[in-house]
Amino acid sequence: MTNVMKIGTEMAKKVGHKDYSSMEEIMLEVKNHTSPLYYIDQEVIADFEGGGTNLIGVKKCPFKDIMSTMSGSGTSDAKVDSVMDGHHTREGEDDKFIDLGCFVAQQLRQMVVSSLKVKGEYHLNYMHLGCDKKTGKKTINAGDVEMINMDLDRLNRLLAEVDCVYAISYKEGIE
Predict the structure, then answer these.
(1) Which of 18, 130, 159, 166 is 20 to 30 Å from 64 by CA-CA measure?
(2) What is the domain range of residue 87?
(3) How many domains, in total, are found in the chain?
């Protein structure tokens, strides 16, 4: 996990601490594929909005192919399984990650989002809402979905179109 954090930190350094005038400017960059998040998610739909957050749908998980290859090989890495089990237990959420690729993508996104500012302040929050890799594996992060007052039916409809849905929320003037 330390290596994932190092990769994310390095990615955030490359992105820099970009400052935006508004949340709309950030989402416009996501939509136009010029956002720092493009380093991770290259096929996105950024037209989802609701509940005070801005939703991003990832058409194809950036780690989908490699994870499919790994699971298709019939081998299981006990160390990876142990890390994932430990993380689920430690975080208290057993429904947030499909696999290690899902975990890595989320950590990288969080690192990039944490390097972005609006009006000179760091008030952005990354929330993974759910994913469905169309391989029989699906997760819903009910806590974050509830936090943004999103209807689960709506999330399921979105997940029928994309592999992953996450939100970036912005609260102006938070101390």
Answers:
(1) 18
(2) 2-170
(3) 1
